[in-house]
Each structure stands twice: as C-alpha cells, then as structure tokens.
Amino acid sequence: MNPEIKDRIEKIRNGIVPEDYKKTKIGIIPEEWAIKKLGQFVIIQSGESPSKFKFVKNGVPYYKVDSLNNSSKYQCYSDYYISKSEKYLVKKGSLIFPKRGAAIFLNKVRILSKDSFMDTNLMTLTTKLSLDNEFLYYYIIKEKLYKITDTSTIPQLNNKHINPHKIVLPTLPEQSRIATILSTWDKTIELKEKLIEQKKLQKKGLMQLLLTGKKRVINPETGKPFEGEWEEVKLGEICEINKGIQLNKSIMIVNGKYLVINGGIEPSGFTNEWNTKGKTITISEGGNSCGFVNFIEHKFWSGGHCYTLLNLQVNKNYLFQILKFKEKTIMRLRVGSGLPNIQKKDIEKHKIILPKKEEQNLITFTLSTADKEIELLKKELAQLKEQKRGLMQLLLTGIVRVTEGEYDV
After folding, report:
1. Interaxial angle between packed helices 172-210 and 316-325, expressed in degrees from 0 to 180 and rounded to the nearest 10
2. pLDDT of residue 205
3. Range 171-225+355-399: architecture per CATH
4. Most exposed among 350, 368, 393, 406, judged by the fewest C-beta atoms under 10 Å?
C-alpha cells in the first residue's frame, strides 16, 4: 500500500484531519465531498399487487423477492397493457431490493437491467442526475440496508427511513470512477464463481464415469484400463456405523475448540470436548438435511443426529466420494413426516459397488485432485471478496482517492 495512504489511514484513525480533508459529524471526509440526505437524490417507488397485472410468457419483467436470487427468472407482464400500468413501471438502472421481512438482512440489492414492474414486498431507488446509480449500489451494500429499518417486529424499510438517511457524496465524476473500479472487481469475482461452477460440473461428470465403472482408470502395471467386475456390497459389511451422543446446548461454547456435528449441513456449534477422531465420514441422521454426507478433518463431537463410519475395510476417501456421489439416493431413505430421519438399519443395507483396492486408490487420487483444484479456486474467490470489501471501505470513505484512469491502493 502507498505510504501516503498508510499515513492518511493512521491520521484518520487517531482523529487527525489530513490535508485536503475535513471533519464532519459522521467522520473525516475529503474537502470537496458533501454529506447529503439520500431523499434529495432518488425517486422512491414501491411495488404493486400481482392482481393488477396480466402475465404472459414474454414481456416486461415483474419481480418478486425470490426473483432477486436469479434475475433471469421472473414473471412477465404483457407489453400490450403497459400504457394502462405505466405509472408502476420502474426504469432500467434503478436499484431494487426487499423492503420488509428477513430478506432485508440478506442485502439483496440489484440494479435493474430492463424497465420492470415489482410486487409490494420490493422497493426501488431511481437516481437523479447528480448521483451515479452504480455508486449508490456499492454505497448501500457497504452501509447495509437493515441498519436503517424498523426492527421492533418485522423489519420494514419505508420512505421515512430513506429520505433523511445521510450519505457521503463525492463529486459525480469521482462517483463514476469509484463505481467503475468496484464493478471491475465484481466482474472478476463473477468470472471466478463461474469457473468454480464449471469445475464442479466437470468433477460431477468425472464421478459419473469413474464411480460407475463406465470409464476405467489406467492400471500403471499394464498401461491399460483396469478390467474385471466390481463387487456389490452393503455399507454395513465394510464399516461400523455409529450414532453419536446428544450434547446439551448449554455445554456448547462459542469459542470452543471442537465442532459439534449434529445432523445439519452446517455444524451445530462448538465445544471443548470431542468424542470422534478427525478424518471421519459422517452422514446426517435427522432433520431436513438427513442423508447429507460429510468428511470431518479434525476431532469433533458427534451428536445424536449424526452417524459416523468407523473401522473401514475400504479406501476412506473412495468411500466418501462414492457416498457423496449417491447422496440423493441416501436422502431418499428418510422416513417420518415431522422430523424426518434415516434409520441405522437402512443405512447399513445401502448398497455400493467396489473395484479392487488398487483401482479404488487411483480413482480417489483423480477425484481428490479435482477437489483440491476446486478448493484452491474457492480460496482465491474468498480472497477476492475480502480484498473488494477492503477496497470498498477505502474508496467509499475517501481514504483512497481516484483520478481518471488510475487508483492507488
């Protein structure tokens, strides 16, 4: 980082106003930046009920909260009726986001790529000439919408929150340059995410070939693919399946040393005790995700809704790969309507096919190599996102200034 910027950061942290900066009620900002009320620079619109619209296969997008997860999936409103509903039309480039409920906390802010309509749970901000819409998009993400809502019962965002909300505004040219820099980072992040998805699909295809025997790996002794039939076995014949011990929530510790694995996809919490060694395959026993297959690297506590696979008679990594491959089939073993669960006897009877040990080892090596590549890409993605967060903090507070065509961090 540029020494001048380091010095500026240190001064601002200590409450010292650097040259060409000024002290305001909400912090130290560049001299030519201003603090304004957001309502002065945006047109606020709320959505309308679907009952006012006639939907067709192709036409003008009509968004609901769920549509924000995938902006290409939305209902369409007939072009023919636009003249009757034009007052509800939101212009391309407007910011759209949830205005009530838990969805506000997920920071689902999007920029509309087309003129659109929306339902009553959504709101849009259309920027006026003195405010860059992409700059506002990044500013809102940094500030987090839920911080200005009423959260006494159901979170709610209204004009009364947006109009008086203070926003730090650079000059319009600097707004545009900041937005351009951050959007470049977003494009890089998006490309990395797409690459990860491609690698996952490639690995899925590889599993389909290798774990079913449709494609045989090369035997290093002969230089030709392995031959011979694979053996079908029951899971209970090649390992011991144990159910964990329920751990009282009061024993869990926020900063505990060991994970508590107890049924869900994510750990239930932490504790300072463990009952299972690391590098163990687990299968969720109960709950909506029962049948989920996981591999726990380090010592952990196996809870009452967790099966652990011990004393394996096969390559551990091979068994994990084939169980992960058949995860959907395992999930279909669930019984019960209230709290679904998978019974131990059904897991023990679950059948898999096994090649000879040498072929297991080579299949595992091939798939593990693909896994490592995906994990490396995920780490790179996490670093990019963290770097972007840091860059947003520097740019949107004016600690780092941008000049046309360049910036220095």
Report:
1. 110
2. 96
3. Orthogonal Bundle (1.10)
4. 406
